[in-house]
Amino acid sequence: MAINAPEGTYDLLPDQKLFWEQFKNTARDVFGRYGYLPIETPSMERTDLFVRGIGEATDVVSKEMFEVLSGGNMAKVLAGETLPAKKRLSLRPEGTAGVVRACVQHDLVPQGAPPAKLMYAGPMFRAERPQQGRQREFNQVGIECLGADDPSIDAEAIIMLMRFFAEVGIPHTSMTLLLNSMGCATCRPAYRDAVRAYMEQHVDALCDTCRQRMDLNPLRAFDCKNSECAAVMEDAPKIGEYLCDECQAHYAQVRGLLELAGIQYVEDARLVRGLDYYTRTVFEVQVAGSGKAQNAIGGGGRYDKLAEEIGGRPTPGFGFALGFERCVHVLEDAGHAFPHAHACQAFVACVDDEVRTDAFALAQILRDAGVAAETDHQHRSLKSQFKLADKLGAQVVVILGPDELREGNVRIRDMRSHEETVVPKDVAAGTVASLL
Ligand code: AMP
To answer: What is the Cα–Cα distance from 50 to 277, expressed in whole angstroms?
Structure first.
């Protein structure tokens, strides 16, 4: 039986791969205008980085991490041995923890330095139940800005994300920007206690998971998909009433800067985001559609304590990530014209087998001149070679016939205008290039 890609993973076929490359280039271009530089961190990190950074009680860490075991370590684990922390590895479920780890490890944010603005693009892995818009391996583009806690960083990054979505073609009218502040270490504990007390009063209506969450991390209950829990949490205390003066002022400045930039947002007191590390600003960009879980195309927020959590000096940070596959779905629904991957610009066709070696050699000369060139490898008829050239997207076909070749010439056809010219073989590459 044929072996397919694992459940929840998929292949990026050439057209999709081309779009993914374009998508990343657009991100590099847009984010680059705001000073963000690319970084690439490993696809796997020590498990304790995610446990400490993202939080043990989060779904991502407690249920969705793929742990990586080498053959030797697998045998040890099966024999009941506990591996030391440095040998316990997991595939990254998100990009922030790795980038912050890299900033700490390489001291990218020395004291007094301007903020480090970094962007990444690559696969993330979560052992979620696969469904439309939810994969086990999916691609994210994200940014992290470390070393500044000013609200202008938050606003600038959100504006930049909305610019990026517009530039890739996500219809402006389909997006809603949800905004909230989650407070800080000063004000959030009191809020968390208030939510816990409220949940205790309504414990009978809560699902088992939310009852467990109540002790460890009651705010997670705002994310519960169970309709009874959602109804209970609808009336739970709102963070706005608990924010300390500093958090209130920070949040007001973020909103003010967004308004100045003409960015519309909706305040959502229930937006707490799935990961533990957020402080103050959190946001999510949702698109209209069915099934709330898959509506988010991007989101992020401020994480002023994360660097310390993973052993660095106190370094405020802000970041977001957006999901490539979810953006593709939105673009498909909007009738977006996706690019097609073309294997060749010029096709070298042979009138008969006698000129096959010359065609092979000419294709080489064209490639050396920077032209994507293809020739026939299957002894097709001339007519079928033209069909193939068309299918491959060739803009030019160079026709080699024994008569022309005897005089040192080739025939060049412009596939768009259908005009043909006969030129000396040694200027063929230049003529082809001028037609592209
Ligand atoms: P998160 O790190 O959960 O905030 O995710 C950021 C973005 O990544 C989301 O807004 C989605 O667009 C995308 N995303 C998250 N999880 C998945 C998944 N399992 N499959 C596909 N895209 C995802």
So the answer is: 11
Ligand 1 center–CA 408 separation, angstroms: 59
The response to whether residue 321 sits with its C-beta less than 6 Å from ligand 1 reads yes
Residue-level pLDDT at 272: 81
Q: Domain range spanning residue 406?
A: 346-435
Residue 137 lies inside a defined structural domain of this protein = yes
How far is C-alpha 132 from the geometric centre of its chain's CA atoms? 16
pLDDT tens for each residue of 260-308: 999 999 999 889 876 667 899 999 999 986 444 568 999 999 999 999 9
The count of other CB atoms within 10 Å of the CB of residue 128 is 17
139 contacts 250 by C-beta, under 8 angstroms: no
Name residue, tokens 């299957």: 378
- Number of folded domains that form the chain: 2
State if residue 294 touches ligand 1 by the CB under 6 angstroms criterion. Answer: no
The predicted-structure confidence for 151-206, as pLDDT tens digits, reads as follows: 999 999 999 999 999 999 999 888 999 999 999 989 988 998 999 999 999 988 88
Question: Largest alpha-carbon pair distance within the chain?
Answer: 95
Supply the residue whose CA is at minimum distance from atom 14 of ligand 1: 323
Distance 162 CA to ligand 1 centre (A): 17
Choosing from 50, 136, 140 the residue with most ligand 1 atoms within 8 A of its CB, the one to mutate for a pocket test is 140
For residues 38 and 160, membership in a common domain is answered with yes
Output the six-digit token pair for 173: 């009218």
Residue 134 Cβ inside 6 Å of ligand 1? The answer reads yes
Q: Is 135 in the pocket of ligand 1 (CB under 6 A)?
A: yes
